[in-house]
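Hi Q.,

Before the meeting this afternoon, I wanted you to have the 2-acetamido-2-deoxy-beta-D-glucopyranose prediction in hand. No need to reply - just skim if you have a minute. The sequence and ligand are here:
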Amino acid sequence: MVAWRLLTLGLLFSGACVASPTGLASIRSASGCGEEPGIGLNQRINATLPSGRTYLFWVPPNYNQRKATPLIFSFHGATRTPDSQADLDLLTTPFFNSDHIVVYPSSGEYGEDNGRYWRGAPQVLDDVDDVAYVLEILDAMESQFCIDRARIYATGKSQGGMMTNNLACDPRSSARIAAFAPVSGSYYVNVTGTECTPLTLNFNCHPARKHVPIFIFHGGHDDTINYGGGPRSSECLPYIPHFVAAWAARDGLSDTPEGVGLLLDAGDNATLYRYGSRSQKNLVEFVYGGNHVGHQWPATIPNSDSIEHATPPATFNASSIIMDFFGRYTLRGRKCGRGGYRG
Ligand SMILES: *[C@@H]1O[C@H](CO)[C@@H](O)[C@H](O)[C@H]1NC(C)=O
Ligand SMILES: *[C@@H]1O[C@H](CO)[C@@H](O)[C@H](O)[C@H]1NC(C)=O
Ligand SMILES: *[C@@H]1O[C@H](CO)[C@@H](O)[C@H](O)[C@H]1NC(C)=O
Ligand SMILES: *[C@@H]1O[C@H](CO)[C@@H](O)[C@H](O)[C@H]1NC(C)=O
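Predicted structure with the ligand bound:
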């Protein structure tokens, strides 16, 4: 087995470089371009939408209202908050990100203590539309800031990973978000009993685009959202490799990976699976976080997740891999070299 080092991620990810036509209407620049930001840079800010729902956001210190700026949505897990998600992903620290705006949406609250869940979870009924909420945030951010509308991304952990996947699966949001990176996601399917077949579950997923870039992370020792799937909270979770293969098939790729290799030589067997060939090379990727990685945002330093679940830190930083992955895609397709698009 080839040992792939994180240091060579750049090389690893270069490959065929042909834009995948999205068939989308031309992408206009955001109306916030040229507007004074009117908020403090490099700090977390709470905002409220006309609908009354709130979100947290952070604008990088070098923000320039005349420069189109990419934006990342990062979704917290069940019972967690936007601030806790920012503490977890560290995407507002210069080590991982210095030029993307980061938005931390806030789930609805449902009854019991800390009953904070996303639509798609068993606790939330069908009439809640969290996708519309996210797009309302995006509209608000685009009118206030100079957002690069071709470089909007989504990531999140646990139910936040589920929410990330829901955005990839919804025709409204998958038409506006370029790439997706769910971490330790709870991909609930509402079936029970003998219909809960983790290896063959069908997913309700209807992206607006033929080729949706997605990078999935899951730990081998996740005892909250088991790698093997099965019944949970009166619904059903998939076997994670089946969930990944279903994305490859949905994207028109072979559901067997074109490449499999250890992520790096660091003890645990963190493994990278890459799907797609030629112009769609590496369109779907999956990191098995390793035998010891639990229900956590993988990081080489301890974080609130690894402490809560008493699992060791990972051998890699998911945030580095996610930023690298997002950097390869725009809504226009795959990005080539420094700034150019081809195809
Ligand atoms: C945002 O609002 C939440 C809820 O009121 C609060 O707990 C949090 O401290 C606020 N965060 C910031 C950065 O102001
Ligand atoms: C799941 O399905 C059951 C049975 O069809 C239904 O009663 C329930 O409301 C559904 N749950 C959600 C969260 O949609
Ligand atoms: C990691 O190693 C364990 C055995 O220690 C094995 O059961 C498992 O399949 C391996 N996982 C991957 C993704 O290689
Ligand atoms: C992971 O990120 C932390 C900063 O959060 C950094 O100190 C550490 O060196 C990174 N590890 C690797 C392997 O890059």
